[in-house]
Amino acid sequence: METEKFTLWCFTSLTRIKFVIICNINCKDGPNKLKSIYELYAEITGKDPMYIVKILIYFIKKYLRL
Length: 66
Known about the structure:
Layout: E1 7-12, E2 18-23, H1 30-47, H2 53-64
Antiparallel strand pairs: 1-2
């Protein structure tokens, strides 16, 4: 979805988990960032299914520098 002020990118995994990024209209690499976030999520939760959501979000922000 794109408006005059922002672009919203959404990715739904096969398990129906939704990943959403809202960025300025100049952001064209939204799908690539979502793919990276999903890969990190799958890697972390695959290793430790008892992960803590705050730590996961912090790690993704730090990794992608959003």
